[in-house]
Specification:
Radius of gyration: 21 Å
Order of helices and strands: HHHHHHEHEHEHEHEHEHEEH
Distance between the termini: 12 Å
CATH class of the largest domain: Alpha Beta
Shape: elongated
Largest sheet: 8 strands, mixed
CATH superfamily of the largest domain: P-loop containing nucleotide triphosphate hydrolases
Number of strands: 8
Strand order of the largest sheet: 3-2-4-1-5-6-7-8
Bound molecules: guanosine-5'-triphosphate, magnesium ion
């Protein structure tokens, strides 16, 4: 199946939740209060979030007044372009120029951090980069074991700490080893931390300080991994993490098992941090660079056009 076909398939649930949009367009409805209310309901039901939905509607209503539009198909045509521009941000690709480029991966339990690291490692190895995986999740031995499997599979170097040891000390050792061995990319896996536990956020800050001191620069990327199936929760997690630490990008996983793909628009709008990668399945090839145009096309393309 083509690259786009796979994306389109994965977004089937989310596309279904937005199917009403196409109906609103083809009905060529007058732009009365009932129409605007229905459009807003669809957006909120599709997990855009209330404030983002309102912002989009305000923009559309202003455009309708300016252009003297009278029918719903005119508005919906514009709507898709608006969603794309909400999702289009500068710096949406990974920054890997530093050597080593240190990528710190954070997020709450089970969102897909370790899997994302494994897939990225494979991809970097294919590009002939040398990679080191650092298991800074010292709470669970199984977490480091899981990362070790990915290291072996991808041909990456691997470093873990003793169970229960200070995660920042593992980060320190990892960067020292990476510098000594001339590694291109260091991927740091962290414990799934609950954003309400301040001590865990403090620990994250400490790791950042160690990275900055030892590598001479802040992490090349601090990526927050959120689970797309959690909808609005993903947005509130992203806001909390962004307050604790400067995020450079978001990874939204599990878009293949949710109807809440609209949450990407809410995240991009609320945080002003680019979505850099999306997960659309458990396979190696299912972690993709995020592309606003392809995402919007896959999200809205009517079923019959497949
Ligand atoms: N369907 C689907 N499953 C995914 C995706 N990304 C990750 N998963 C699955 O989600 C589960 C959790 O992934 P992990 O990578 O272990 O998550 P984690 O954030 O490292 O979890 P903790 O270390 O426990 O905090 C695994 O079963 C993954 O295979 C995705 O894009 N789609
Ligand atoms: Mg993990």
């Amino acid at each position: 199946m083509s690259w786009f076909g796979k994306l389109r398939d994965a977004l089937g649930g989310s596309r279904q939740s937005l199917a009403e949009i196409e109906t609103l367009a083809t009905a060529r409805r007058p732009l009365d209060r009932a129409f605007w209310n229905e459009l807003e309901e669809v957006l909120i039901a599709a997990d855009f979030g209330v404030s983002t939905a309102e912002k989009i509607l305000d923009g559309l209503q202003a455009a309708a007044r300016r252009n003297l539009w009278t029918r719903s198909d005119q508005v919906i045509g514009r709507f898709k372009r608006d969603v794309e521009s909400f999702l289009t941000m500068p710096e949406s690709t990974l920054r890997l120029e530093a050597r080593p480029a240190v990528l710190l991966i954070v997020g709450v339990n089970g969102t897909g951090k370790t899997t994302t690291i494994g897939k990225l490692a494979q991809d970097f190895r294919t590009q002939q980069k040398s990679v080191m995986l650092v298991a800074a999740d010292t709470f669970r031995a199984a977490a480091a074991d899981q990362l070790a499997v990915w290291a072996q599979r991808s041909g990456s170097e691997f470093l873990r700490g003793r169970e229960g040891s200070d995660p920042s000390a593992v980060v320190y050792d990892g960067i020292a080893a990476a510098k000594a061995r001339g590694i291109d990319v260091v991927l740091i896996d962290t414990a799934g931390r609950l954003q309400t536990k301040t001590n865990l956020m403090e620990e994250l800050k400490k790791m950042r300080r160690v990275i900055e001191r030892e590598s001479g620069a802040p992490p090349a990327e601090t990526l927050l991994v959120v689970d797309g199936t959690t909808g609005q929760n993903a947005i509130s997690q992203a806001m909390l993490f962004n307050e604790a630490t400067a995020l450079t990008g978001i990874v939204v996983t599990k878009l293949d098992s949710t109807a809440k793909g609209g949450v990407l628009v809410g995240i991009a709008d609320t945080l002003n941090v680019p979505v850099k990668l999306i997960g659309i399945g458990e396979g190696i090839e299912d972690l993709r660079p995020f592309e606003a145009r392809a995402f919007v096309d896959a999200l809205f393309e009517p079923e019959t056009a497949a």
